[in-house]
């Protein structure tokens, strides 16, 4: 059919119908327009799977971009990373690798990449000398991938390509590690939730609203038991961006 045979009124009707259809499509199927997997706006829009107690190189090879390390001190006051969940109450990691080897693996295997890599540091020591040594190692091994600034949750994601985002909590305050941290879960822009807290939030609507412009990291429960619901529930339902879950008896991995 030629457009010459279509009346002006018919053509206008077709245009209006198409416009109305598109508007309804956006309203009814918003995920097709604003899906987290297609958005590359800000760091808080960056959805990624996490891994802990796993060989770093193996995790990165599987596409993992959020790594969590549980940091301990060895007998020489050097920072080490636990490779298995430690017995609650112990302040020494029996099974461990050096923190330096973890950082070297990140440098070698996480980059180059158009996506940032997130390193969540959970200290299990209050020794300032150990935390200072960890900071020294970071500045030696991954220096060119570190980014200055705190509360960078609203930073454009494309500006963070090839960067290592460091997150931690209040235990590092007063150490040389503190000024290197980009996001702290003791501050508003980042929350570190357990599985149970994310699966059964006290206020689901508040959590969904928080995750629109902030970041939630869903880690393991203190006793390292697996979640009772589907592990993707926090991300899918409440918008939590960085998620860990159990995969087999060897530890906490993300598929």
Based on DSSP secondary structure assignment, what is the total number of beta strands?
12
Structural classification? alpha/beta
CATH class membership of the largest domain: Alpha Beta
CATH domain fold name of the largest domain: TIM Barrel
Share of helical residues: 25-40%
* Domain module tally: 2
How many DSSP helices?
Answer: 8
Largest sheet geometry: 10 strands, mixed
Q: How would you name the oligomeric state of the polypeptide chains in this document?
A: single chain
Low-confidence stretches: 14-39, 246-255
Specify the overall morphology: globular
Radius of gyration: 22 Å
Query: How would you name the CATH homologous superfamily of the largest domain?
Result: Phosphatidylinositol (PI) phosphodiesterase
What's the N-to-C terminus distance?
52 Å
- Beta percentage is 15-25%
User: What is the element string, with H for helices and E for strands?
Assistant: HHEHEEEHEHEEEHHEHEEE
Kindly report the average pLDDT value.
Answer: 80
Tell me what the CATH architecture of the largest domain is.
Alpha-Beta Barrel
């Amino acid at each position: 059919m030629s457009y010459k045979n279509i009346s002006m009124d018919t053509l206008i009707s077709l245009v209006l119908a198409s416009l109305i259809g598109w508007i309804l499509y956006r309203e009814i199927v918003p995920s097709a327009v604003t899906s987290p997997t297609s958005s590359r706006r800000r760091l808080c829009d960056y959805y990624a799977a996490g891994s802990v107690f796993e060989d770093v190189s193996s995790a990165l090879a599987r596409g993992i971009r959020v790594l969590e390390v549980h940091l301990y001190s060895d007998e020489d006051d050097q920072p080490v990373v636990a490779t298995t969940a430690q017995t609650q109450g112990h302040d020494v990691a029996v099974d461990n690798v050096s923190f330096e080897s973890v950082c070297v693996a990140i440098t070698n295997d996480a980059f180059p990449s158009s996506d940032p890599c997130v390193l969540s540091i959970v200290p299990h020591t209050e020794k300032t000398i150990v935390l200072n040594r960890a900071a020294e190692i970071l500045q030696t091994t991954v220096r060119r991938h570190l980014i200055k600034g705190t509360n960078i949750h609203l930073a454009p994601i494309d500006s963070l390509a090839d960067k290592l985002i460091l997150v931690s909590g209040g235990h590092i305050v007063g150490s040389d590690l503190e000024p290197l941290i980009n996001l702290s879960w003791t501050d508003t822009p980042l929350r570190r939730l357990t599985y149970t807290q994310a699966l059964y939030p006290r206020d689901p609507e508040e959590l969904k609203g928080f995750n629109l412009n902030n970041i939630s990291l869903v880690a393991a429960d203190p006793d390292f038991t697996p979640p009772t619901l589907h592990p993707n529930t926090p991300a899918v339902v409440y918008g939590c961006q960085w998620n860990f879950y159990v995969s087999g008896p060897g530890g906490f991995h993300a598929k």
